[in-house]
Amino acid sequence: MRRKDREVIRHADLLDMVARFKVCRLGLWDGREGYVVPLNFGYEERDGSLNLFFHCAREGRKLDILQTRPEVSFEMDGDHVLMEGDTPCRYSYAYGCVMGRGVVEFLREDEEKIHALSRIMLHQTGREAAFTPGMVCAVYVLRLRVESISGKLHACPEPPPAC
Fold it and tell me: For residue 86, what is the DSSP state?
């Protein structure tokens, strides 16, 4: 990483960023070209391993690629704030981002799928949700087992105290 001063090193800080961000972009490779797709997600860390969960339709390009090449890269970002400057070169942007790679698995068992769907709903809405068998059957549910993760943070400076 070029800007070591912005590197997020503590694992707890990376998880805090994952908790704030709502969209994860998967980078896929079909053998000829890259394909990047944004997805809402849920997550869980268990025994030091981070899993990201996604749901999707039962057909499409993403699934076609993942069935033959489950290795992916991912990126999520947030905390965007334009920081104005007195000249164009003094403008900047505050942000945080998390990047990594891992392997996607298709969840097959209803219990696993319900758990993953529940994690997605909890992350996206802050609430628990119940799923009928028809809901579980209507979608594919994916688990990304994260193998490596890194982060970068360009924090917005604190506003000056009020007089």
Answer: S
Rounded distance, CA 41 to CA 55, Å?
8
Q: What is residue 83's predicted lDDT score, i.e. its pLDDT? A: 84
Cα–Cα distances (Å) from 2 to 7, 52, 113, 157, in that order, read: 9, 27, 39, 21
Q: Please, what are the averages of pLDDT over each run of 10 residues along the chain (163 residues)?
A: 73 93 97 96 93 95 96 94 86 89 97 96 94 92 96 75 48
Cα 102 to the center of its chain, rounded Å: 12
Phi, psi for residue 41 in degrees, rounded to 5: -150, 170
What DSSP line would sit under 126-149, residue for residue? SS-----HHHHHHSEEEEEEEEEE
pTM of the complete model: 0.89
| Neighbour-count burial of 22, counting CB atoms closer than 10 A to its CB (0-12 exposed, 13-18 middle, 19+ buried) | exposed
Strand partners for 74: 26, 100
Q: What type of residue is 5?
A: D
Q: Cα dihedral sign for 120, 122, 124, 130?
A: positive
Cβ-contact 24, 38 below 8 angstroms: yes
Half-sphere exposure for 3 (CA within 13 Å, toward CB): 7
